[in-house]
Amino acid sequence: MGKRRDRRELLRNLSKKQKKHLREFGEEHPFHDKSLLGLLLHSCFPFQSENSDKSSAESDSETEVEQVSVYHKLLATLKTSPESESEEEEDESESEEAEESEAEMDSEGSQETGEADGGEDKKDVPEEKEATDTTELMLGQEQDDGADTSCDPHHGVTEEFTDVKHESEFSLETNFMEEESGDCNADTRDSNPFKQHMDKELEEKEIEKMSTVPKTSSQSQWPRLGQLTFSSTLEKHKTLKADKEVDVKQLYLHKPLESTWPKVNKQFLSSVNKPSDSSFTPLQRELFCIMNTYRDLFYPERNALTNGEEIRHAYCLHALNHVLKANAQVLSNNAKRRDRKPGTDTDDYRDQGLTRPKVLMIVPFRECALRIVHILISLLEVNDKKKIDVSNKKRFKGEFGSDPEEKPPNLKRPEDYEAVFAGNIDDHFRIGVAILQKSMRLYAPFYSSDIIIASPLGMRTVIGAEGEKKRDFDFLSSVEILIIDQADIYLMQNWEHVLHLMKHINLLPLDSHGVDFSRVRMLNLNNWCKYYRQTLLFSALQDPQINSVFNKHCFNYAGQVAVRNLPLTGSISQVVVQLPHVFRRLEAESVTSVIDARFQFFIHKVLPEYRDAIMSHTLIYVPSYFDYVRLRNYFKKEDLNFTHICEYTKKAAVCRARRFFLKGEKQFLLFTERFHFYKRYTIKGIRNLIFYELPTYSHFYSEICNMMKATDNGVDATWTCTVLYSKYDAQKLAAVVGIDRTAQMLQSKKNVHLFVTGEN
């Protein structure tokens, strides 16, 4: 009690700015840390040390004056002046006033989903929570006896945890196949897709052909997936047909999965499923039919609300099936090598890659990794009585789980937002998973893992950049299945991380990492692993950047399958306000010149029409942050009356900008797409809307347009909506207006006027 009382006294003695610094940085200002200040002064003025030579004290008075002045200059940089304190108080009061005005805006009748008191946005909550917890840790608050704070993300993990205790138990080199498992010969069937794909020996002329000859493609129509495009460079494969009914026993699943999959997937099945097809939904059946042939797959119709979990279960089944078969083959060959006679050819036992990780799963948030691990565990548990041994499970739940109380009870967002941002939305993580027969090891070192689950940022930080001393990407050398789920979200995070990963996957390792080269497949020794790697790419939309990854970074000899359904009706049909839509076409010579052409078109032909004061309350929706910065700088240069909101804008500034725009104090509001993606606030007061570029998510178009009804003041006759597009925006345009209108608009070079009555 005495210690806590002393800490409270310490807090009372701190000034307002000291407390603010403590909350923000988790430590006292260096000026108030006597030990740190002493070290700092000693390093700056070694002549003031007690052990310094006595002759330094006999220096002339002129030097002493100079030393004192420098000393005072140092103190001036550390001291807290009354003026700076008053400035901080003004900033804080301004922030409080902005929040109060925001609360008033939210209580004006319409269903505003802003950040009134008690309704903090959950993207802001972790920041405040982290500051609070860091302060408590700084002040030395006592923990419960036996509490493991290292697995608490709020306390921070100084070093990345890896499980080294269970290394020998999960080693593929020192373990053997259990005789009672009955799986020793499970993978020797010639019709087994895994064995067919991995045992095929390519020739050098085929590799050269895949590198130089363009792919040939064919079309096919499937009942559930729709229009499919099959492409391949090698000899034409037989056209894959969708199986109307699938028997689990015909899929060549690893033995335990045949019994566990129907139970795990039962939640997605309806009573209308036929008894012979009771283990897959129609979507899962067709997706798994393609996955099981080891072709690359691009499915751009993933929806977090409807089919997201179905797809996650399907690719988890495929990934786990692949890992179990690969490990069973290694363990079986271990037993054969142990019992073989001396002098026997060892080339019969080439069953491994240069490194152990076989499957890499890229997901956006920790919640996704949590769900994947739960699916893998449930697929390995044959029945409730036989639970598998999962190491570090408690730590995993602590670091990847979420507290339901963290989410404010009165926070209202669209359903798709709630589905995407459910649970722990930290986007910096990576974890290795090792699976051996009836056990699972979480937090396994990467070189001892079978599956790696990570975010793009988590991969980027471990891969590093050229020139960095501490970087590692050898563990990616032998990845056989790459799964990129929810690829559209990475466009909102940082797409460069995905491209960086694709450049470092399936490269020859710089170190051997203790591999037995007599067990390594020839395809890995020849550096041909990328031609065997299967890539599964799932997204909520079709985007040129995502298409580029699938077309330019996937080299699977088995070929690629892409779902290419054209949108019949666009999101413009979801606009409920009566609003004229003017689509203005700009011309550009190439894709690279579109950025400059759009900017010049906007400032010379569009913006002059909105400079008049009568065109107030104009919101400019900008998908690209770089375009936003360019427009913001131009508006400042031209001294236009505007305000701006982006994903980096602080909460108080957002409140002020929304208030100024609503009251008409600012004529223009620059508004970024990433801010809308992460916050989904309703912006009131919009009368004129300009889409600087078509939105990445088509439903954002109708959402932004429908914000106009948030302020019903009888001036709907003056509402306008202008959209800038070029011929290179065909995919985005089709998602907004539909494929038929898109074809007409691209053929005609005239501006297109559409009027939505609210009944479309």
UniProtKB/TrEMBL annotation:
Residues 84-118 have a biased composition (Acidic residues). Residues 294-561 form the UTP25 NTP hydrolase-like domain. Keywords: Developmental protein, Nucleus, Phosphoprotein. This is U3 small nucleolar RNA-associated protein 25 homolog. It comes from Rhegmatorhina hoffmannsi (white-breasted antbird). It comes from the Eukaryota. Residues 47-160 are annotated as: Disordered. Residues 571-755 form the UTP25 C-terminal domain. Component of the ribosomal small subunit processome for the biogenesis of ribosomes, functions in pre-ribosomal RNA (pre-rRNA) processing. Essential for embryonic development in part through the regulation of p53 pathway. Controls the expansion growth of digestive organs and liver. Also involved in the sympathetic neuronal development. Mediates, with CAPN3, the proteasome-independent degradation of p53/TP53. Coiled coil: none annotated. SUPFAM superfamilies: P-loop containing nucleoside triphosphate hydrolases (SSF52540). Interacts with CAPN3; the interaction is required for CAPN3 translocation to the nucleolus. The keyword Transferase does not apply. PANTHER family: ORF PROTEIN-RELATED, U3 SMALL NUCLEOLAR RNA-ASSOCIATED PROTEIN 25 HOMOLOG. It is found in: Nucleus, Nucleolus. Gene3D superfamilies: P-loop containing nucleotide triphosphate hydrolases. Belongs to the UTP25 family. One of its GO terms (molecular function) is rRNA binding. Residues 119-132, 151-160 have a biased composition (Basic and acidic residues).
